[in-house]
Design goal:
mainly alpha; 24 helices; 0% strand
Length: 460
């Protein structure tokens, strides 16, 4: 009995970690504590050398604290905080509404386009969803929009920031899967725009079928002269679009790394705030506090996950997981991929994206590398960028799937009175269906993912 326990210690560790997280304890402490406790248990049972625990500290330092890629995360979070606190995003919505006022469902389309453009500079889903909920949702409801369409539009537009580069999630995944952040940024770009396009198709189709539930903007809406029009565009649209072009273009052109482009993005967001007359000490202080809170949460989880993954793999977790999957009949490459996609989708119900990344990727990434997808991708070296992008698209659903998707709670805290949690849930379903359709397209047509990084020479 004791030998059986020792042989399956890694699987028991994995199950115990899941159970404790389900109980509601902070994921960073659960993962770090599980690694430490099971490392000591493994030492007592003679299957884990106690001296190996010292390697956890070295990995935390070398793998997290001094990693040049992860340095970009605080900067991207800071950039998003500046744009949110300075009001630049609100100016952008006004400009986008003016441009699209003649399109069916123009206000909802404007919110989606704005969310797509804001996805790059803001990159923090909580900030984007709350921002759109506060400035766009009341306006859509007042204009007579179907409340479930309005809720779903705001939620899906806000969550694009987790996928469209330079998304923080992509930096995390690049580190977890030991692949290039620049290549992953390029790989996720087209799927991000694909999802945005699917959302727009649904919104416009809904507006054409039910025009009274998604009315057009009135003809007199917005500026009435060319001078007012161009002033609105200059203040709201051009600076943010230019910032996105600089941040992403510098990476794709090879002029800057992800870390360097993040610094450029922070400088650009400060300049936009100054151009709009909103650069002041109070705004900077608020932005710093918001960014510090978000960064503390992200890096504490990194440290706990580092401890967990090291102990898990030292206890033979990779081999134990493969044996367990083979026992349940998961042995071919497509069965493995399908298993992972379903697992990640289901984990999206109770967990957030960073928890899923740090639980699943260190365990299953090395396992998937043992399969050859070269016949489907054209080259087996493309596997990690393709797989990481599929995971990223799938993880976007983790923000929107009831009952525990983070976006649901972001919205419930900001929606106007009269909107129930049931309304929020119902508004998500059509857009989650669009996300799953986008995922299937990326699996079946891998060039959607691989075309841009191959064109930019990032996969050579």
């Amino acid at each position: 009995m004791i030998d059986l326990f020792a042989d399956n210690l890694a699987l028991i560790m994995f199950a115990v970690m899941f159970f404790i997280i389900f109980c509601g304890y902070p994921v960073a402490f659960v993962m770090g504590g599980s690694g430490l406790v099971f490392g000591i248990i493994g030492w007592l049972m003679g299957v884990f050398p106690i001296a190996s625990l010292s390697n956890v500290i070295l990995r935390m330092w070398g793998g997290v604290a001094v990693d040049p890629v992860l340095v970009s995360i605080p900067m991207f979070i800071f950039m998003g905080s500046i744009l949110e606190r300075s009001g630049s995003a609100k100016d952008m919505l006004s400009a986008t509404e003016v441009l699209l006022k003649r399109v069916p469902g123009g206000l909802a389309v404007a919110v989606m386009v704005m969310g797509t453009i804001l996805a790059a500079p803001i990159g923090v889903v909580g900030a984007a969803v709350v921002l759109l909920s506060l400035i766009a949702l009341p306006q859509m409801l007042e204009a007579g929009y179907d409340k479930q369409l309005a809720i779903g539009t705001v939620a899906s537009a806000g969550t694009l920031g987790i996928l469209i580069p330079p998304a923080i999630m992509l930096v995390v995944m690049a580190e977890m899967l030991n692949t290039s952040a620049g290549a992953l940024f390029a790989a996720a770009t087209m799927p991000g725009f694909l999802l945005s396009g699917l959302y727009l198709m649904y919104i416009i189709g809904f507006a054409l079928m039910y025009p009274k539930r998604a009315p057009r903007l009135p003809a007199h809406f917005g500026p009435q002269s060319k001078a007012e029009f161009w002033q609105t565009m200059w203040k709201g649209l051009f600076p943010m679009t230019f910032l996105m072009f600089i941040v992403l273009g510098s990476i794709f052109a090879g002029w800057a790394t992800a870390t360097e482009s993040a610094g450029v993005g922070v400088l650009g967001s400060f300049l936009i705030a100054a151009l709009n007359g909103r650069f002041n000490l109070s705004m900077v202080n608020d932005s710093i506090r918001s960014a510090c809170r978000a960064n503390a949460m992200v890096f504490l989880i990194f440290l706990g996950a580092t401890c967990f993954s090291y102990v898990f793999r030292t206890l033979g977790g990779d081999d134990a997981m493969i044996a367990a999957l083979n026992y349940f009949g998961v042995d071919t490459k497509w069965e493995m991929l399908a298993f992972l996609m379903v697992l990640i989708f289901l984990l999206g119900f109770p967990f957030e994206w960073i928890e899923i990344c740090l639980i699943v990727l260190p365990v299953f990434g090395p396992i998937l590398l043992k399969y050859d997808f070269g016949d489907h991708l054209g080259d087996k070296t493309y596997l990690m960028p393709w797989f990481a992008t599929l995971v990223a698209v799938n993880l976007q659903t983790s923000f929107m799937t009831p009952p525990f998707g983070a976006t649901l709670f972001y919205m419930k805290g900001t929606v106007p009175p009269g909107i129930t949690m049931s309304d929020v849930y119902k508004g998500m379903y059509p857009f989650v269906a669009m996300q799953l359709l986008g995922l299937l397209l990326c699996i079946y047509f891998p060039q959607i993912v691989l075309w841009l990084p191959k064109w930019a020479g990032l996969l050579d």
